[in-house]
Amino acid sequence: MSDALTIKTAEETTYDIVSLGEVMLRLDPGAGRIRTTRQFAASEGGGEYNVARGLRRAFQKRGAILTSLVRNEVGLLLEDLILTGGLDTRFIHWVDDDGIGQSARNGLNFTERGFGVRGAVGCSDRAHTAISQLTPEDIDLDYLFGELGVRWLHTGGIYAALSEQASETALAVIKKAKEYGTVVSYDLNYRPSLWNLHGGKARAQEVNKSLAPFVDVMIGNEEDFTACLGLEIEGANENLD
């Protein structure tokens, strides 16, 4: 039996790559510090989103993003940035703005650069985001994977860690993609700060083990595979050296 992946042709599909995940507004203080700057450069970013954007911009692959945004000025800015990145936005699920972000909001990610021995510093503001509440029913998955056709779906552990709903939606979308013969990749991308909010490492392993049987390409390093799947890596100590 061959272990080679069977990938649909470009001619029989609308998209080469579709990513499922959060897209946050990234605010960069340039050469300064977050705590002292008085201006930021705005861009978009997200662990899963960056894969589709990179494939579109570097290799001209036809891509789309599955995500959810609040329809306000920040959400519309994110949409414009996604369009600039070359991805199809028709599968963004829009949520009405309540005026204060109590029911749902768009995520923010402040990121400053590292210099010398000082590492980069990130400060995320992403609780109760619209994407963490996305359900499988919010997107016409049969239309996407069945009628339009997708060669490759990418998602990962950052998205799955956002909430219990996100974990459930990730599984449903992956299963639907497999139903229509789409190849699925999953980046474990273990983030303790996200999983600590609901169940910690034990819950991370429970969720990722439920997703693993439906994944064709699993991506991660030693820490990801030990933390997310409970695998023992020969020769690695508690510091993963």
Order of strands in the sheet with the most strands? 5-4-1-8-9-10
Report the strand count.
Answer: 10
pLDDT average, as an integer? 94
Strand content: 15-25%
State the helix count: 8
Unreliable sequence segments: none
Which structural class should the secondary elements be placed in?
A: alpha/beta
Radius of gyration based on Cα positions: 18 Å
Give helix and strand order, one letter per element, not per position: EEEHEHEEEHEHHEHHEH
Oligomer: single chain
How would you describe the shape? globular
Distance between the termini: 36 Å
Taking the sheet with the most strands, its summary is: 6 strands, parallel
The portion of residues assigned to helices is 25-40%
Q: Notable features of this structure?
A:
241 residues, alpha/beta, four-stranded mixed sheet, 10 strands, 23% strand, globular
Please, could you describe this protein's structure?
The chain has 241 residues and is an alpha/beta fold. It is built from eight helices and ten strands. Helices cover 31% and strands 23% of the residues. A six-stranded parallel beta sheet has the order 5-4-1-8-9-10. Strands 3-2-6-7 form a four-stranded mixed beta sheet, with helices on one face. The longest helix is centred in the last third of the chain and has 16 residues, at 164-179. The radius of gyration is 18 Å and the shape is globular.
Question: Brief description of this entry?
Answer:
With 241 residues, the chain is of the alpha/beta class. It has helices at residues 49-59, 73-84, 141-148, 157-160, 164-179, 192-195, 200-211, 222-229; strands at residues 15-20, 24-28, 41-45, 63-71, 92-96, 108-112, 121-125, 150-156, 183-187, 217-219.
